[in-house]
Amino acid sequence: MITIRSSTLGAIVLASILCPSIGSAAPSVIFRGYTLTELYTFEDAAAEQHQQLYQTLSFRIERPGTQKLSLVGHMRYQGDSSDDFAESGSLKIHNLYARWADGRRFDLRLGRQFLAEGVGFGTYDAVRLSFSPVTWGSATFWGGQTAPSDREANIRNLDDAKSLGLALRGCLSKVNLTASLLMEDRGGDPFRRRAGLSANADLTKGLYAHGLFYINISGPSDLHRARLLLRYNANARWRLFGEFAAGTPQLPVDSPFEFVEIETSMLGRLGASYQLTSKYWVGMRVQSFLSGVPSSTFGLSIESGWGSLGYRQRFGDFGDESGLFGSIRVNPTDFAQVYASAEFSAYQFEDRDQEDQTAAQVGVRLFPVKSLLLDASLQALKNEQFDQDIRGLLRIKWSFAN
Predict the structure, then answer these.
(1) How far apart are CA 20 and CA 5, in angstroms?
(2) Residue of 59, 57, 37, 52 lying closest to 374 (CA atoms)
(3) Are 290 and 314 in contact (CB under 8 A)?
(4) What's the mean per-residue pLDDT of the chain?
(5) Can you tell me the distance from the alpha carbon of 68 to that of 101, in angstroms, rounded to the nearest whole number?
């Protein structure tokens, strides 16, 4: 691996922050985004105390009024006090790329970026070019390598994780079509070859359909994933949906599970929701795995602006589980919100005895000014492994723009 030193990368980030601030008196550059500080404290099963720190910076730098040239970044430092942050402390780079765009006609991006281009789905260290030669279609090309799954500030050697992709989009007879191709190598050898076609359209008033068919040109099976989704808004109160999927899950190509062989499966989902009043919705969902180890889930819930309440039942060859869950949100003032949630479940796996689990959370959110969020919560868990597990989370989010 080619390693970027954290000090060097930190200097780049710091320069990115200071440059627009220095020139903020003149409206030549816009700098906006947010910082998020999270402090998480808990005791593990070995009775060792942990204080974990997560510091996130997400920003966008661009010239005002044009958006032609911009720099986009999303990164996070994380560490654990159990080793004084010596080994656990690390910088994660989720996005860091330069963008040059001219409206919808032309879009060039260089750097670490998340792509959702048909079968090309994941985070890449790559160059991506998208252009629209006609009003009804566009073409996207990208090339580079898959990003490290741990998001460390490292760049893989090109021969270790080479990736090339193509996506063609068009609209024909009000049907949106996407054809895509993905070619990836590992260690100089072919690793993943996929092609796919997807389509979505409003078939009639209130009826929406989405379908995709992805295949492995080379791999353990020809079918990667097939899916058909239908959503129907029968009227102002009734909403229905149905889904059928077959194949393997659509994991990002940079997932740590990329080398794990996952069995193909078939899954069906049905759901409905009904608006009882202007403030209350009731919903029902059924999900069933139709292959492998058969299992089904049934859920019923009622939702409103104040929170939700529901019941869940799972059953199948692997075992059974039933649970109650609920949440509540109250705004005592314009700048404060109190929230709580709880869940109780009883489960039994195969021939084991039934086990119970209770989880709860209570917290408060404060908005002292428009750009600042303070969120503090306590979390509790009780099951067969943890008799009393209480954890604390503090989140401070500051949104900024010059």
Answers:
(1) 24
(2) 37
(3) no
(4) 87
(5) 5
Q: Residue 93: is it exposed, middle or buried by C-beta count within 10 angstroms (0-12/13-18/19+)?
A: buried
- What long-range pairs does 204-209 form, CB within 8 A, spacing at least 24? 206/232, 206/233, 206/234, 206/235, 207/231, 207/232, 208/232
Examine the pLDDT at 84 and tell me if it is beyond 80.
no
Residue 144 burial by CB count (10 A; 0-12/13-18/19+): exposed, middle or buried? buried
- The answer to whether the beta carbons of residues 80 and 71 sit under 8 Å apart is no
* Integer Cα distance of 152 and 125 in angstroms: 12
Predicted local confidence at residue 2, as pLDDT: 37
Task: Give CA separation, 63 vs 112, 113, 323, in Å.
Answer: 21, 20, 52
* Three-state DSSP class for residue 136: coil
User: H/E element holding 87?
Assistant: none
d(CA 1, CA 52): 27
pTM over 0.85: no
User: Of 87-91, 203-207, 338-342, which one has max mean pLDDT?
Assistant: 338-342
pLDDT band at 157; cut points 50, 70, 90: confident
